[in-house]
């Protein structure tokens, strides 16, 4: 279904930006109760319009409503609730550890908002990836401009319609558009930019980082990759892996991109993955509606190019209907590291299987492809998991699971190195939207006891006293 998305006039964007800066400067958002009211309004925005949001996700992605509930909308409500429940705790001033030299000065760290934040997000989870970090933005006390993806026009249009009804428009605005509008946004000075990428390659990331660097603005980015060298409970492992690969038609930044398996194990592994697929989809998903579609024609053409040009052996699926943008669940074995399927994030329900000699070669392959956003290891051997995790870098290290880590309360979600930096969920997201402001309050009476020794004229007695308190002893 096609939805007409009304773009924000480019010449209005600087005015919106300036009004947000003025609102933040006025100071209303420093009140914790105001933040809680706004977070609660965000909850109602989602809860009151649950069916409309489900329909928008279906219109944009062809995603089954039950899948949207489980992977996007319910997860979003959990993030909003976590922000509401913890905003008071997260914003408390943190006292420094006690030290005999400094305790009287009450050293502490104030948790303060950064200012005006820009959120730019992708099409693959067009509600969660913009509203989950937005909940943290509110909790942190910032003003915010949200730029949803033009690749998900139904969701972006609905957000623009709902925001004035629920959110404080002095502090929170939605801007819709494409390249001209985004370019104008990136020309402006922001106190923080979060750009959640879905493309996997670093081209767009470099554009955003370059624009942000011109204004010395912090940025947050994302990317993804995976390893699966083998596991004892193969049936469950294969089912979890295929679920992670096929959910949202593979259009998830943390979907397993590829599987690495021992050469002798490849055929066994492939057969287990095929059986897992048939268990989850006993009937053609084109008819049941249980698999999403590729988001638009441009991405469908890209996916077709990947399928046409791979030198691997297609053992399941392998075709895409360009009219409906339905891509079959596809497994490709005997994929080499230099294959086209390994050249970019696939963002489709296609699983390349890379055979290797052993775990050492698997580690070399992972490290040669840059830092993953998510590195999965399916194994029952603790030493095996430790070896892989200890000798690689990734945003997250996940054992024997896919996708659920984004919903896990208490751990950060974000990349490292080429897969980006910063985090998008929970307390870790809140932390990136606040400034940690150091503070001390030194009583005047300290000068009568010891601090007078710092002043000239310098004497031997004062130097001895100063060294007694301030010259540290050897650590060992």
TrEMBL record:
InterPro entries reported in the protein's UniProt record: Ald_DH/histidinol_DH, Ald_DH_C, Ald_DH_N, Aldehyde_DH_dom, Aldehyde_DH_NAD(P)
Domain Aldehyde dehydrogenase positions: 13-435
Catalytic residues, chain numbering: 222, 253
Pfam family, one: Aldedh
Record carries keyword Oxidoreductase: yes
GO cellular component: cytoplasm
Alphabetical GO biological process terms: aldehyde metabolic process
GO terms, molecular function: aldehyde dehydrogenase (NAD+) activity
Keyword flag Oxidoreductase: yes
Entry keyword set: Oxidoreductase
Family: Belongs to the aldehyde dehydrogenase family.
Protein name: Aldehyde dehydrogenase
Organism: Daedalea quercina L-15889
Higher taxonomy: Eukaryota, Fungi, Dikarya, Basidiomycota, Agaricomycotina
